[in-house]
Structures are given as C-alpha cells and as structure tokens.
Amino acid sequence: MIDATDAHNCEHDAMVATILVGTCNWSDHRDFYPVGLAARDRLAYYAKYFPLVEVDSSYYAIPPPQRTATWARATPPEFRFNFKAYRALTYHEREQGALREPTGDEERAFLACLEPVREAGKLRAVHYQFPPWFTAAPENANRLSRLRDRHPDDLVVVEFRHRSWARDEGLVGLLELLREAQLSLCLVDEPQLGTGSFPTLTEVTDPRLAVIRFHGRNRSTWYRSGPTSADRFDYLYREDELREWLGRVDELSSRVAEVHVLFNNNRANYAVVNGLQMAQLLGLQYPAPASSPSLFELSSGPS
Asked: Helix-strand-coil percent breakdown of the chain, rounded to 5?
C-alpha cells in the first residue's frame, strides 16, 4: 500500500511538491476488481493501489453524511478525496433558458456531505466543473468570486467547458480573479474542438494545489450524450501521450505544494491502466494489482 505522504517528491529550489495520481471515481473500472468483489468493498480495494480519488457521484446526487462517513472509514489514514460539486451548484440546471441558482437546502446538503470526510482529515479539494453554457459573462465571474464564501477553508478547483474564459483579455481577468479568490484553475487534457472545450494551459492560480484532469482525446465522442459518461470519454492514452505531460507536471511541481493527476477516461479499465502507467512514468511506487494480470494488456488508445 502506497503512503501518500511518501509519494513522489520532486526537488526544486522553489518548492517540493507531492504528486498524487488517481481516477475520477472508483466504481466504473471493469476488470480491475476481483471477480465477486461486492460493490461496497470496491473503494477499500481501490485505495490499496491509489492514494487519491475524485468522487463524481456527488455531482449527480448529494450523498448523505452517513455514506461519506462510511467512505472515510473504508480508506487508510493517508487516503484523500476530491469531491465534485453537486450539479445545481455548478449551474448545470436551467429554467426557461436562464441559469438556476442553487437553493439553500442544496447548498447545505452538499456542505454536510463533506463534513465527515473533512473531520477524518481526508478532504483534499472540492471540484467545480462548469457547463458549456457557463460563459465568460460578468454575472458568472461574480458567481466564481462568491465560491470562497461557501468554502472559506477548503481547497477549491474550478474547471471550465466554454472557450470564452480563455480568450485574450478574458483569460487575464479570469486568472486575476482566481488568484485573488485562491481558486485553483483545473488543467485539462481534452479534445480541442469548438467552443465547448478549454485549452491546455499550465497556469497556477493557487500555489497550494494544481489539478490535471485527463478526459481523453476522442474527438468523435466529445459532444456525444449517451447512457453513461463512458460513451463520451472513450479513450485509452498511449504511453507517448502520457509522456507529453511529464515536463508540465515537473514544472507545476516547482510552483505548487501538491499536484493531482486524475483520469476521467472511464471506459472499461482505461482510467486505471493510464493512472498506473502515469504513476510509473512519474517514478511513483504504486503497486500493480496482482488480481488483474490482464490489466495492462491494452497498450494503445483509439486512433
């Protein structure tokens, strides 16, 4: 079992960063879990091989505190969680074409679900992924600036799905806003296709944390809506594509205290395969799952 506190440290004059690799949920990884393993035992099994996970189920429905307390108890002391914010809090819901503001009940319920994990010392960050219709408008910039009021003591990561935030002066203003509010801009690896994508940047807006999310590079499915998100993020990275990020990770590790590398390409076992490959490329000593001898048989992604 890897100790997250002993994770790969890069020596730099400016800073020594801890690098943690994980996936953007623990439930989707076909062929990773031993045959017959109960669903309730998957998180504990996952935590034997990765020190970090992003909880994505909290985007779809807010888990009760009793459930998140169970997750905290199921994982070792050094394990860490990033929680994805509930969909109403990220303005994924609209009413008559306008963004719907979250209700007080929704906000309180989401904050309550975080509390058991925070008390256990395992809450690392809260992730706000905004939809393509959350564009670079003044009212949306104001919404961003108020996130710190909701999370006065949490590390907060923000991710954008509309290119207007990265255009010219708009990007300068966005970076200033995020730095002032101590919100970390999520760095993404994703298809560069139309307005519903965000460019691959290496900007640091909170020196405490940088998060990189790998969504795959499948251009043909980027705008596809299907029964599951696996239809959209159907991509297995080749090793040379992962190596493209090693220099960026090294640069980030000289500028922040902690780097999270998270794989959201959740078709089959792609995220686990690429996560363990990336950990190996970064020099991290993550164990290989002995129960899944075929885990690394897939070695190249879609063309």
From this structure: 35, 15, 50
